[in-house]
User: Fold these one by one.
Assistant:
Number 1:
Amino acid sequence: MWVKVKTYAELQQYSPQKGEEFTLQIQDRSTIRSLMESLGMPEHRVMFILRNGKKVKETDRLADGDQVFFYPVIGGG
Amino acid sequence: MPWGYNGKILKVNLSASQIAVEEPGEKIYRQYLGGGALSLYFLLKESKPGTDPLGPDNLLVFSASVLTGSMPAPGMNKYTVAAKSPLSYGFAESEAGGWWAPELKAAGFDAVIIQGKASRPVYLWIHDGQAEIRDAGHLWGKVTGEVQQAIKKEFGDDRIRVLQIGPAGEKLVRYACIMNELKHFNGRAGLGAVMGSKNLRAIAVRGQKAPAPFDQEMASAILKTVRESYKEDPAGLGALGTARVPPILSAGGMLPTKNFITGSFEKAEDISGKRLAETILKGRGTCHGCYIRCKREVEAHGSYEIDAAYGGPEYETIAAIGSLLEIGNLEAISKGNELCAQYGIDSISFGTTVAMAMECFEKGILKPKDTDGLELRFGNHGVMLKLIELVAQRKGFGNLLAEGVDIAARKIGKGAEKYALSIKSQPLPMHEPRGKKSLALAYAVSPTGADHLENPHDPFFEKEGGLKDIHPFGILDPLPSLDLGAQKVRMFTYLQQYYNWLNSIGMCIFAARPFGPFTVNQLIEYGRAVTGWDTSLWEAMKVGERHSNMARVFNLREGIGAKDDRLPDRLFKGLEGGALKGQKIGRKEFAQALEMYYGMMGWDPKTGIPSRYKLEELNIGWTFPLLTRHSRNPKGKD
């Protein structure tokens, strides 16, 4: 199945071409966690995950055509 | 002989036009290090409770640290300004980076203490081990850019570093700020008004060589290791600045929006660091010795003329005069940032004060006849810009807002106080405690009131991987951001003292873990190399505790205590929109966390008063008698 991924700010470094948005083919019924693992994205660097606009956890399973946005941990300043 | 520092404190009595030098001795430097801790040492020793914050007896302290400036080190360039606050009538402190503190160290001094009030506007000129009070009549009333230029031109030296207030400080705007080199701000707690009340417009410094470190080779080796470990992120703090934050927090439902009513802003992407980089970003600025380059510099010639000399908007400003006011116009926000820098106003306090006024206006509590005809509606960026000028000059409605959100709300009446979001009269900064619950405790117990930099925020420590940075403190278990139980309080208690220690060594949080390259233990090693002291993290954390306890004593003797460690009502109500809709702080969970914090600090769990045992253990037993000499000082409002 295909998912559309967007990585914000510091998390861009984990996208395949270092761009902000990309589409990715992944195994059916993958979890968000396995998606992150395949990108080499450490969990502790991610503050929020939105799946189709809703806040979700790493354990959520993805569906074909999902839009997954990853936001980095920030704080202060 | 001192290594890394001068051993000299400059004391200036503006009333008597006298300058003296105090040499406290090595043991004082070792126990207080610099920053807020060293400032508190002098404030408690030499000022009395009940002093008028805008009167001549208020002491104004500028403190670098034993480590500042010895070598170009990332983040190691800050100073603290401290005094009694004209907002809280308690302890005021605010830090800034930039270039002034390393230059002060090179000029021969570690700190400057200002007493009294000059009979006419003056500025201080410190260079090569000497100091001189000079006439500032020709500078008074001018914007900060003009004053900086005039001083540098007067001595024909562009490398003079200028610290100053702006016209707002001259007019005693209660949240006027201090800055150095036009872009680095001691923003909070009204310190600009204190400086203005002394008729002191600026402190210019110029030195030749910073005090040498004890072990130059070791210090260099540590800095080299730190440098090698730092990998610049192409889309991180350096590239996009703190400005990258609004869309991130908005997605999580915790971007302060519409006076903290809601947590998401549909225009968050329009006011982001990415948008800035695509439009008006001219450059990335930095501070002495730092390669992180987190500062923004913007220039525009479109709807507004914006001068890059004043830098550019950082996150707090983008939120405070942006999302907080539902303003999604980045150029207007950037212009607002420039005006705040020109006039010397804390953009955070200004934003929170205007948000109160806008909410009052929209609810009919304020009418056009009260606001000089201005339409104070959320989203009205033109009015926001107009208000900066009116506040800075204390003109018309601006004169009311210049008093700060609490006094202004009280004078407006008709329930306005419900919309005044402040703690100890310090307006709330732009991080949402309902999404990161340690901030509920941090805001409430911060000695200066509502400080978002008491500790690294909760999201860093939600997962195992994030704990590595704080393993040296023995914090081993991750905690959810929305937790405010005993273990979260423990985490806050330890990390508050960590951040106090960073403050005391003039270290920027962005260059130390969890944000930046310096690990906790590398900072200790660096400290040992610079000072030659056989020191440790244990000793360092005790300095942090000393800061917390002295600040507590300072406030208690001004009548500020547990009753003031509170949160505005709005935070006990649910966020009205965004991904965290309905999320609130529980009154019981807050009360329990507060008691737990007091207990963990070694204070009375009910009253938050430090025990004599704790003060003696920290070797500040001399402050214990001060606790019993309370002032009956009414807060002097109205």
Number 2:
Amino acid sequence: MNRINYFAFLVGLLGFFMSASALAQNFSVVETLDNGRNPWSMSLFSLASIEPEKADEGGRLSTYNYLSFNRRLSSHTRFAVRTPFIYNSYGYDRFNAGQVQDQELFLQDVFFSYTDYNIALLPGDIEVFWEGRVYIPTSQHSQDTKMVTRLRNDLIFSKLLTHRVQLSYINKFNYYHQSRTAYRNTFIGDEGDEITVTSLTKRMEVDHWLELWYALNPETGIGFKVGGEDTWWNRSEIENKEKAPEHLLKVGPSFRFSLTNSMNFIFSVDSKVAHISDLGRLNPEHINVALLSFIRF
Amino acid sequence: MMRSVTLLSLTMFALAVATGCSTKPKRPVLQHPQAVTVMTYNVENLFDTEDDPQIEDETYLPQERKSHPLIMAKCMELRQDWWKKECLEKDWNQKFLRRKMQRLADVILQVNQGRGPDVVVLPEVENQKVLDQLRVRFLQKANYKPAILVEGPDSRGIDVGILTRLPLVGAPTLHVVQFTEDADLGVKKEDIHPTRGILEATLKLPDGQLLTVLGIHFPSQGSPTGFRQQAIARLKEVKDKLPKDRMVIVGGDFNITISEDLSHKLYSSELSQEFGVSHLIGCSQCRGTHYYHRKRSWSFLDALLFSKDLLPKGSGPWKVEPSSIFVANDSLYQRNRWGSPARFGDGRRSTGVSDHWPLVATIVPRSPSVLMSKSKEKSNESN
């Protein structure tokens, strides 16, 4: 399925699920709480990304999506069960030695989420959003690595600087509770042959950034982010293997817009590099273009 | 490709900033040494955290008190489901009350270089005690005298209060608004409930002249137009009993929507016969003081009315400056993301204070030469 067909598929899926939508709360960089009469709701999240240097040359469209079944518990809290799935189109990507890959659709780890949209209001009118997630190892990768569970903690601190300008600090922390420190990892090598190596399992990840948003009007805004992604791996005594933590810096602009009260989108371009000196070079292999979609039913 | 995307992003950002800077409306600036600023501001349910058995204030109590069977029973008696739910779930404790008052103060003090208006009419206040808490703890910069409020018979328990720096002359009076059954106006006996009275307070202006302020809060749009028509008639009665040369300003929440005014001409005809209406004599760039989301419409639910002698063509010793009339909405707490009034709600968000925006106007002494020529005109006419 090529990129055009993917979007057609997504629109079709939305049309199938969409019914009368309740009014949404304020526009935000995250999903917002639906305070309609019905405490039960569904929503769809999609993160679609592409490597820009291959966009016009058969580059692969990769999407991470989940369908969320939500129960509002109070005016500011919600519990949800989410079933994520990945769809990747046919094409090239940076992984697997740049070989052409078939399209694929597969389940990721199902997770439970508890969200408090206003867990605190700090001095200086700083809003605090919190979400906790518990992942179940339903994906093939989690089963291959024998992961027990993953715990995720999201915090967002936001402050309105003027009527139009908002500053946010976002922190997403993942902890992997693994049953083993290493696993057998199979992939396609440069020659097109199948290679199996021993890889280390992840221990933790932190994705965090500072973002400034400017509201052009109630439906659209532009932003700019600066942050980092850090990953730590387990050390395997048995395999005598360890891997240095990876620290990436990222910067880039974003554009947010909403089509209706129930459909919000964020388009972003991120440059992720290991060295600060590479930040301004805008090398294509460091760039990711992504579209985040939040749709409430 | 990436350089293009970056350039486009930066260009959009620059355009956005330029657009944002240029669309901010200019606030009228009136420089006069004796100017008196008047504001009307519906503060949306300013209740204390204590239970008053005489009124329906159970919604505004701390969560830990709501498990009491008597309180729960009173919540269950409320007429509408959403109100029942709010009554049972809302946590109204000292923390949220302080936050509400701090935000109200931020709104009130945004005028007059941070000193607030000289007179502010405040509908939807539970009692004098909570209004004085606001005055003493959060409005010190305004230096207001003790709050003026006379409790009325409204079953919701809300009243109109006044805060002012001007001296009070005599005691304030509450004029009860009594509705009478009238089939033509759609006022049915079973719909008649006690409501907010008209608060009368006479103040002394800096030059010794007297100004009577009438604070009102008419029945909501939940009641037929006939109720507001009868309330207007009562307002006129109260005003007519005042001395003929008394300058009068009426402030408050009239609950008259734009569509109701178009069909029944409550502002444009009934009230305009005896008063100058703030948004009809000025504030031409203003959209309104309240936004009704369901109908996507702005209305001037709140207004300031000026007796005829206060109007520019009037003969009173003071006059209102039409160019000074504006809707004050610069506080960060006041706007939601759609740019309309942000309710306080559960008080957990960084914005939200009231579902109304205040309306402000300034009156100034009429110049002596103008006063003299008007006085000559009057004596010529009588000759």
